[in-house]
Design brief:
The protein is α+β, with helices and mostly antiparallel strands and 808 residues long. It is built from 20 helices and 41 strands.
């Protein structure tokens, strides 16, 4: 938010340096992020002086040029070549002397240099008003007052104003400081703590009166909850023209380009008092009536920026008697109802709109205006009528308008000031230091917080309506502290704290898994639980009706709670790939959120994302791309680490995988994993294969939460490894081989592993080759060849009998 120092001085006659004022504002909680010097005309016309044209003759080598001699009031006259048709001897004109820098509309400067024009020397430039930034005319040079003395600085003639603009990082709770008057009010409170008592000058509206009640615009409000207060007045005989220079300078200083006197006055009062206003061309309000209501979903409406928008049935709309929309209330005006140079009658609106409704509308349409910025944070409802009078008086003064109706004020339920009891003991406890009671009372008085009652224990307070953020005792204490000064609070150089140890078994399990994944090269991510509503359309297993929607979304990209961790993970994958980081291993612990008929439900998940090469490129290690079996090894390794074995494999039911399997224990599903469909990856502009694993963490915790780890001695006798190359039917799965092996030899067989699969034209049709390894070990003695051969023969016979296996 931009605050002009010259504007502040209209309310508070402070003569401090801007830097010192900025420091005090920061101490008060209005953090000044920067101070910029602003000139009403860039360059402040330095080097431009009043010159007197002594002679003016035709240029000998150019029909459209004149050669002049000009007295600059500092010695010998200078020769200047001028192309203006109206230059003549005897005139007083503005002259840019050698070395002067002039600026164009884009702010780009050019330096005046000594030169020759068609063979004649020129020592300066006689200027038109657009060349000086004083207007838009370029018909000829400016003719100044004949009484001016040559050599007079142009900055003195045109009252060039230099201002300092504070860039304030306003926190959302400080709605009371969203104006110059609000900042001045806070500044005065801070100055009082430094024993500087200045009067806060508020704009007077005592001259407001209705000249002639001859044109009334009625108002009708359909929903008082959406529009608790709405005020308006009709002003006739308005002449739309440029604003006075001082208003233009104020607006330019804070980055607002002037348009016309009526619009500029509404903007001026907005930034002066913090109350948004809107001016309608009354001739375009059909039926002489304003109706504030909501319209049907999808209604078309063209705003001032010439964009046609589709309205929501929740948008507050300002309409006429025929229900034609004129303005999106509190957000943006309509193209057809605004004030133009032909406007002669104005309906001026000042209202209080529901902050939540305004915020939703602004985010829905992607509009962030000065008005919506204030309405959605909560303005002072009791300021509405005062600001309307202030703007109406300015329109009367600078646009010739006449008040032609009484103020129509819809305010059915008056908002009273809030009452709070402040205990002195609570003040001392929260601040950590005892502040004198009189100091507390003085600070409260400087903040317009009235003391209703006083006892030894505390104070009964009445909070002004413009402090919408001060509703609790703790809020009042915060106000006292920020004005008293955080820097004035003593603090101990010794810090006492207690260290807590988390004995939660579930947290320990998460840490075990996280450590294992990190050791395998994974990085942990933490995505936002809010996401796009449209993501559910990317999977048939997710339903739009199960979305948990935000009542007041920050944007369309953060509109609902996520039903899956997949999409936010793919966003992270895409973000990294786009930045040349394509070998990725991510994991995230997070929740999904669902709305069902019987209520809301949260489920916890662990998700893995793997894509690209397994390791970084190195001459020591051959490049290997992450694939399904690599991820399977990581998934089964995690389950094994948690003591979950003998899981059942089944086809995955989720439609986000092109290839995938689901692992479960009994009827409890543990994890789905596989290759993400290319069609889904295309939505995120990902061109490489991505593998995704989704653990149902709640189910896993239910299995391992109370499971104890068993510790056993290392075996004292060696293990023996033997291999079999089995020719089997294509339909036979390794799982069958695995189970048959342990059924055949329960005691000495320790491990069974598939290390090669071959399918090719050298094998009989419908056959494949499995290379299977077996680890055999007796924990009490060393096995001899005879015992080993007996076990292997038994295994071979089992495979031949049950699955028709043959040795290759």
């Amino acid at each position: 938010m931009k605050i002009s120092y010259n504007w502040l001085q209209q309310f508070l006659q402070i003569d401090w340096a801007p830097e010192k004022t900025g420091e005090l504002l920061t101490d008060l909680g209005l953090e000044v992020e920067g101070i910029e010097t602003i000139e009403s005309i860039k360059g402040s016309l330095k080097g431009v002086v009043v010159g007197e044209v002594l002679t003016c003759v035709q240029h000998p080598n150019a029909d459209k040029l004149k050669v002049t001699t000009v007295n600059l009031g500092n010695g010998e006259p200078v020769q200047i070549v001028c192309g203006a048709p109206n230059v003549a001897a005897g005139q007083k004109v503005p002259v840019a002397t050698i070395g002067t820098v002039l600026y164009d509309e884009k702010g780009e400067g050019f330096k005046i240099k000594k030169g020759k024009i068609r063979g004649e020397e020129s020592h300066g430039m006689i200027c038109a008003e657009d060349e000086l930034g004083l207007g838009s005319s370029h018909d000829g040079i400016m003719i100044l007052d004949a009484a001016l003395e040559p050599g007079t600085l142009a900055s003195d003639v045109f009252n060039i104003e230099t201002d300092y603009v504070f860039e304030i990082g306003l926190t959302p709770n400080r709605a009371d400081a969203m104006s110059h008057f609000g900042v001045a009010r806070d500044l005065r409170a801070g100055l009082l703590q430094q024993n500087i008592n200045l009067e806060l000058i508020s704009p007077s509206v005592s001259d407001f009166h209705v000249a002639e009640r001859r044109l009334k615009t009625d108002i009708e409000i359909e929903d008082k909850d959406l529009v608790p207060r709405y005020s308006g007045i009709t002003i006739t005989d308005v002449e739309v023209k440029d604003s006075p220079e001082w208003i233009q300078n104020r607006l330019k200083a804070i980055g607002i380009m002037p348009k016309n006197n009526v619009v500029d006055i509404t903007n001026y009062v907005l930034h002066e008092l913090g109350q948004p206003l809107h001016a309608f061309d009354a001739a375009k309000i059909k039926g002489g009536k304003i109706v504030v209501k909501t319209l049907e979903e999808g209604t078309k409406f063209t705003t001032l920026d010439e964009v046609e928008r589709e309205l929501s049935s929740e948008d507050i709309m300002i309409c006429d008697a025929e229900e034609n929309p004129l303005c999106i209330g509190g957000v943006f005006g309509g193209l057809k109802s605004g004030v133009t140079e032909n406007t002669t009658t104005v309906f001026l609106e000042s209202a209080y709109f529901n902050p939540v409704s305004i915020r939703k509308t602004a985010k829905r349409h992607g509009l962030n205006t000065d008005a919506s910025f204030r309405f959605e944070r909560g303005i002072d409802i009791n300021l509405t009528k005062y600001a309307l009078k202030r703007a109406a008086l300015l329109i009367e003064e600078y646009a010739g308008g006449k008040m032609s109706s009484d103020i129509m004020d819809f305010y059915p339920e008056k908002v009273n000031d809030f009452e709070v009891f402040l205990a002195f003991e609570k003040v001392y406890k929260l601040i950590g230091q005892e502040i004198p009671k009189e100091t507390i009372k003085n600070i409260l008085a400087s903040l317009d917080i009235k003391i209703n009652s006083a006892t030894e224990a505390g104070l009964g307070l009445v909070i002004p309506s413009y402090r919408v953020d001060v509703q609790r005792e703790a809020d009042v204490i915060e106000e006292i502290l920020r004005v008293y000064g955080y820097n004035n609070i003593d603090f101990s150089h010794k810090l006492n704290t207690s260290i807590s140890f988390d004995n939660d078994v579930f947290v320990k399990i998460e840490n075990i898994v996280a450590d294992q994944l990190v050791s395998q090269g994974f990085n942990e991510t933490m995505a936002n639980s809010l996401t796009k509503a449209d993501y559910v359309n990317l999977s048939e297993t997710l339903k739009e009706e199960h979305n948990v929607e935000m009542l007041n979304p920050l944007s369309n990209d953060l509109k609902v709670m996520r039903q899956s961790l997949l999409f936010s993970g793919l966003e992270s994958v895409a973000y990294n790939i786009n930045r040349k980081n394509s070998a990725l291993k991510f994991f995230e612990f997070g929740k999904t959120y669902h709305k069902y008929e019987n209520g809301y439900q949260e489920d916890k998940h662990l998700t893995l994302f793997v894509t690209g090469n397994r390791t970084k490129d190195s001459w020591k290690v051959a490049t290997q791309t992450s694939d399904f079996f690599y991820v399977k090894g990581i998934v089964t390794g995690l389950l094994t680490r948690l003591g979950i074995n003998n899981v059942k494999t089944s086809p995955v039911k989720s439609d986000v995988f092109s290839e995938g399997i689901s692992l479960s224990l009994g009827k409890t599903k543990l994890v789905d994993f596989g290759v993400v469909k290319r069609k889904l990856l295309k939505e995120f502009s990902i061109k490489q294969e991505v593998l995704f694993a989704d653990f149902n963490w709640d189910n896993i915790l239910s299995l391992v939460g109370n499971k104890k780890i068993k510790v056993a001695d290392l075996p004292k006798f060696p293990a023996v490894k033997r291999d079999l190359a089995l020719l089997i039917d294509n339909k036979v799965e390794f799982k069958e081989i695995y189970n048959l092996a342990f059924q055949s030899e329960r005691n000495l067989l320790k491990e069974v592993d598939l290390f090669d699969v071959y399918e090719g034209d050298k094998l009989p049709e419908g056959k494949k080759s499995y290379a299977v390894s077996f680890v055999i070990q007796d924990e009490n003695k060393t096995l001899n060849d005879k015992q080993i051969d007996k076990i292997m023969q038994k295994l071979q016979q089992t495979f031949e009998k049950n699955v028709g296996a043959e040795l290759r």
